[in-house]
Structure formats: C-alpha cells, structure tokens
Amino acid sequence: MRIAKLKSLIPEIFLIVSVIYYWILTANLFNPIAMGLLAILMYQVINRKPLSGLLISGVFIGLNLFMVLALISELSEFETVNQNYKNLIVFGYLYLGCNLLIGSIMFIKYLKLKIH
Predict the structure, then answer these.
(1) In this structure, are residues 102 and 11 in contact, taking their beta carbons and an 8 Å threshold?
(2) What is this structure's pTM?
(3) Which region holds residue 41: left if phi is over 0, alpha if psi is between -120 and 50, else beta?
(4) What is the pLDDT of residues 69-113, one digit of tens each?
(5) Distance between CA 57 and CA 108 in Å, rounded?
(6) Burial class (CB in 10 A: 0-12, 13-18, 19+), 77
(7) 31, 64, 81, 116: which has the fewest Cβ within 10 Å?
(8) φ, ψ for residue 15 (rounded to 5)?
(9) Over the chain, what HEC string results?
(10) Contact (Cβ atoms closer than 8 angstroms) between residue 60 and residue 103
(11) Are 46 and 60 in contact (CB under 8 A)?
C-alpha cells in the first residue's frame, strides 16, 4: 500500500524537485516565485484535488512548451555547431522532454480522477 501511494505521487515529487532545483540555481534565498510554487505543489500533494491537479499540470505543460520555443531560439543564435550547441540540444531537450512527459502523466492522472 505504501509503495503504491508513493508511486501515484511521482509527478508531484518530480515537480517539487524541479522547483527546488530552480530555487538553487537562482542563488537567492528569498525567491517568492519558488516559495509560491512549492506551496502550491505541497497543497496539491496534501489535498489531491482533481481540478487543481489539472490546472497545475496544464500550466506546467504550457510553460515547458514555451521553454522549448526559447530553447529553439537560443539554438538559432549559434553560428557554428560546437560542443556548447550539442550540450544545449542534448540536455535541453532531455530535461524539457522529461518535464513534458511528467506533466502529461499528471494531467492524464487527474483527468481520470475528474471523470470518475
């Protein structure tokens, strides 16, 4: 029972880890955006309401699709294909792809809960 409960929270845990990673990269202890995102995600973990889960995952997917466009824009600024270009492609698309996959899993999970 405990493993099944933890398994159902994988998308939320991934999002919490992503927000903490973002917070660490900003090098600012007082980051109201990260604090707000963590508060919203903790609320979702505690309450597990389908509507808020759909909203959170929908916003997360939308932001990541925007970041894919930002990555494409950044890649277009390279004049030659060098190691930095390759690193940006590999890690950028890998990270954003994982985010989109996790966001989609979370969206489908809460959509099924909303329908039932």
Answers:
(1) yes
(2) 0.83
(3) alpha
(4) 999 999 999 999 999 999 999 999 999 999 999 999 999 999 998
(5) 9
(6) exposed
(7) 116
(8) -65, -40
(9) CHHHHHHHCHHHHHHHHHHHHHHHHHCCCCCHHHHHHHHHHHHHHHHCCHHHHHHHHHHHHHHHHHHHHHHHHHHHCCCCCCHHHHHHHHHHHHHHHHHHHHHHHHHHHHHHHHHC
(10) yes
(11) no
Dihedral (Cα; 81, 95, 18, 66), 10-degree rounding: 80
Answer with the residue of higher pLDDT: 26 or 82. 82
Single-letter amino acid, residue 106: M
Are the C-beta atoms of residues 100 and 62 closer than 8 Å to each other?
Answer: no
The answer to whether 107 and 57 are in contact (CB under 8 A) is yes
Write down how long the chain is. Answer: 116
Q: What is the mean pLDDT of residues 11-28?
A: 88
CB 39 within 8 A of CB 92: no
